[in-house]
Amino acid sequence: MNGGGLMRQHTIAEKISCTGIGLHGGQLVHLSLFPARAGTGVVFVRTDLEPRAEIAAHSANVSATRFATTLASGGARMQTVEHLLAAAYGLGVDNLRVEVDGPELPVLDGSAASFTYLIHCAGRLAQPEVRPVLRVRRLIEVRSGSSRIAVAPARGLRVSYAVDFSHRDIGRQEFELDADDPAAFEREIASARTFGFLDEVEAMRRTGFARGGSLDNAVILDADGVLNPEGLRWPDEFVRHKVLDLLGDLATLGMRLVGHVRVERGGHSLHHALVRAIHADPDAWRVHEPGRFPGGFALASLGARQ
Questions:
Q1: CATH among 1.10.1200.10, 3.30.230.20, 3.30.70.1280, 3.60.10.10 for 8-130
Q2: Fewer CB within 10 Å: N-end or C-end of the chain?
Q3: Can you tell me the distance from the alpha carbon of 282 to that of 302, in angstroms, rounded to the nearest whole number?
Q4: pTM, whole model, 2 decimals?
């Protein structure tokens, strides 16, 4: 997949469902993925509400970024959407209807691997319409203390991420990903699990978060090391999961990004700060869409716009 190339939009070929526990609420939820028309994007539907509430996965609907990405619209909210959004983004699925009978997506194993599996089982379906892309023309940067996120011009979507924790099992970790390669996403990123520190998890539970968290769906560390009996999936699983979260958060931009994203000590709040900064600076990017001409496609710049 080439972020600057003439790629068609994709959805899934058929409905597929799963059931699991929400990471923060701890409630059992049922989730179903449905095909969606070209141009729809990813839309979450709360089926437990009357009438049903639809929440588009767009930055305008991001209502909270503490510990997870939460979307809200018209009084309805959907929490912990980033892992499913990352799976769709990483596999190049543009249009998806996600029906959920609760306020939070299931955490499953704490990564995007199960969502990736669901998409594969449902099958990817190419649509006639071609995918528009947002191409960065100059540097956009956000800083917050020792944290930094920036996107610079590039030929496709590339991610360079660094984390730096004082814990001896993490320390400084760096990872780079060609985010236009679905195989690389699935091989290197999709199975990286969310993680937390035991004392912080206990504090989160006292404030209503992480009620569904366990060693089955998160990597937990105490002062002595990783508590999970099976250990880590990679020595640098921590930074890989940060890349996963970033891709899910970038999905709220509203279209595919073409640029090199560099992150130092990031998290959901910083990721969404970059998305907001991109929207706030339309002179720094252009939207490209293909036009149909006899004998094939040609790429046409639509000019800067939000």
A1: 3.30.230.20
A2: C
A3: 12
A4: 0.91
